[in-house]
Amino acid sequence: MIPAAIHDLGPGMDRLQRIALVVGIAGLALCGLELVRDPAQFQRSYLIGFLLWCGVMVGSMAMLMLHHLAGGGWGYLIRRPLEAAMRTWPLVALMVVPILFGTRALFPWADPAVVASSEALRHKQVMLNVPAFIARAPIYFLIWGVMITLLNRWSGRQDSSSDPSLVRKLQNLSGPGLVIFALSGTFAATDWVMSLEPEWFSSVFPGIVLIGWALSGIVFAILVLPLLINLPPLRDLAAPKYLNDLGNMMFTFLLVWAYLQVGQLIIIWSGNITEEIPFYLRRMTPGWEQITVLLAVFHFFVPFVLLLQRNLKRRIEWLWKMAALLFVLRLVNMVWDVGPAFDPTGFRFHWADWVAPVGIGGVWVAFFVRQLKRRPLLPLEDPRLPLVYERIELHRVGDVN
Predict the structure, then answer these.
(1) Which residues form the domain of 233?
(2) Is 4 among the domain residues?
(3) What distance lies between CA 24 and its chain's CA centroid?
(4) Model confidence at 1: pLDDT above 50
(5) pLDDT reading at 393 higher than 90
(6) What's the number of domains the chain is made of?
(7) Could you count the other beta carbons within 10 Å of the beta carbon of residue 66?
(8) Percent helix, strand and coil across the chain, each rounded to 5?
(9) Which pLDDT does position 219 carry in this prediction?
(10) Count of CB atoms within 10 A of residue 16's CB?
(11) Domain assignment of residue 2, yes or no
(12) pLDDT at 7
């Protein structure tokens, strides 16, 4: 039997929304001081924060489409958090505006003198020019916004209708939608991250960014889950089997991310080409070298070993801790991707690189909570949901026997 839905998420969520908004405003105010003192540094720090939270939004959309295609009870545990996260796209679209205004401070190819002195940049000028860069950003958000609107509309109808055609619509959009996500995300990753070092190129790097975004999406949804898991109707859905499946999904994206990172490193290092190898040489200078080791150990090896433990993945308190570790390391990874482009001779700590993501994140989380409170925690008329509860009962009987 499927329990009734509720809309009230309790005073805890209201408190989280208020705290997040206050923290966000305070963080952005501090960054505003840096904008006055050093506009170039503000732009760099703001870019790090934008990439982190844009990744959560886009990655949530990708994970939701994967759930619609693959099915499984794990997706219902985090479906409404994923939907709320992707509905923040209008806010994230507004957040890209400071980056568009700061193009010349961030990207070397925006400086005509730099382009004139580099043959490689002159060849890339068809894509890497200011008007084209500014024009492409709204296109990305328009593409993502259309898919998010349709996914949202059809999912919302399942709160009151068990029409099986809604399931087919969600599935039919999600297949091509993942391809569109990969294509649009590749261009966005190239524009916003890879072109920070425009003479460098890698066909693997956009894929690393996309997998990182998908990982950010599922990690953030798992972080929210302990706040919701004791509320009906999720309380009866949070079976160890589905928590284990969530851990396996997180493990899979972590493994693919590491595989692409190592593959790119091996290819570039063995090729030893002048245009490619500086990317890693910059990240092996004092300071950045320690950050590289930190990422290798805590963004891969430690969670890899922990996520192999089936008993840990079946307990929400341990799953949450692993997700928290990975989310912090996603921020460190953003700093590692962006920072050496501006500090190629060594690591330079700047407080705004860490405060800007907190400020942007505070406002984003407040908007996310607002979206999460708009709908019940499960689409209770989804015709696939009764089968999910039946499987829970079968596993429960099997465990007892």
Answers:
(1) 11-392
(2) no
(3) 18
(4) no
(5) no
(6) 1
(7) 21
(8) 80, 0, 20
(9) 97
(10) 18
(11) no
(12) 55
